[in-house]
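Researcher: For the annotation table, I need structure tokens for CSON006857 protein. Please keep the output clean. Sequence:
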Amino acid sequence: MAQLNHKSEEVLLNIFNVGKKRYKVFFHLNIIKWQKLSRHDTFNEKQNNNDSDKSTTVSLCDILNVTVKEATTRNGLYQIHPTLDIGSPSAIASPSTEFKEFTIHYATETRKRDQLKELKYNAISFCSNDFALVRIWFLTLHDSLRALRLNRPKNLLLFINPYSGKRNALMVYEKYAKPLFQIANVNVTCIISQKANQISDIIIEQDLTRYDGLVIVGGDGTFAEAFNGLIRKYLQYDDFELDDESFSQKINIPIGIIGSGSTDCVAYSIYGTSDPTTSVLNIILGSSSGLDLASVRNDQNTLLKMYCSVLSYGYLGDIIRKSENYRKWLGTKRYEFTGFKEFFKNNGYEVEISYLVDDHSIDNREGCRSDCERCSKIKSHTDNNESHHEHGTWKTKTGKFFMISAANIKCACSKSPNGISPSCHFSDGYIDIICVKHTNLLNNLKLLLTLTKKDKDISDLGFVEKIRTRKFQFRAIASNEMNFNSDYINSSSTQTIQSSSNYFDQKNGLSSFNCDGEILLDSYVTVTGHRNILKVFRKTAITPSI
């Protein structure tokens, strides 16, 4: 008989029923393991029996909640008692309460080719006629989870953008997120945005100290709106500058994204999939890690935007701007239609890039992992060097390019599972500039086909070059630059430039920027990587169910 002693070394080992099957269940050192017993197995025989039935092992840190059902005499029905975040209710604390079964709600991962694919929600209920035994197991797991949940979110501020992507964000929340939040006893304050920049404005004005995290249900643009609101909120303090290490420490509220956009590049890159359940489980389990952001400034040193995924000029910039002409009658298909048209146009753009190179600019072709060695080394270097952005050697590259993309993360999605830069890191403070030379349609086709492969890197193509840097300056060169009014093009007013957007590409051979799905039309920008500005909900590893 198991004994309840509330010690970390405690061992529980008993037999329970799951439906009509018998299971041997074991708990020790925050690990729960259960294995099905055959009809004729005794308790001890199964330990040495090489049966085909596999056991399941779940770490306590992967458990969302443990619930219990009370035995009643009325028609044999059970009453469900929530068990977490409410202390010890009298019904649970009372020795006279009889418990029939307890249920473990937990997360498991599905794997494909040894890579994390998705997290799934599972639940299993263990039943016994020994009510005292059920009580011991339930209270032991409940007490063990209590300490663990101190680091998990209890109150979340959640924003839904009903207009993002396929306009199904509200359905995604109701179907995938809300039930799991309820199971985990997470309180959610839900706000549905009605107009552009509303989320950013609310974040700036809202007192965030009441919340343990922010959650975005939307696309990459909605996520960008949220963290740009956070940046502006904390830049209001005169004591903080964006380049200060103390600035990243100021934003200590983690943020998560549940993808419901057109590409869901950010969600896919962070969680390894755009599956909404995976995102929700990452948020509930509460682990977080640092995420770099990159700042974009114009020639007046005015901060235009912070971006998380990619700043792209040329092909992707043309798509994001010209697709707006087809928004009303093509919806999300406008990107594919515009991309098809621009592909055959094969436009090339003259560009000058000046970038900073140092000892950490070398790409070792290894992706970012949990306990990443590269990110740890960069952290040590920057902690000992406050002005690290200005150290190194400046180099300049000039040429004609089909596309130039400055990736802050790998920028993967379901159509490009390996992303633009597979070896880009989450928290090293560096940006990968992908320079695609202007060549011919055949090479452009090779580029697009390579992007669709799970095990290919476009930087292996002969006409593609990757540059890793902390900071770079970008200047678009107009085709008639000798007669070009640079003051007009480099105007700090984005609205002025947007009103004359046709002037850019038709008369002067200029493209535009795609900045996290938003349009930027400045032709001269300075981009700087900022290490660990954000904290994102991201569980880097889950104990596999064996």
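Researcher: And a one-line annotation?
Model: Residues 1-7, 80-91, 482-503, 542-546 have pLDDT under 50 and may be disordered.
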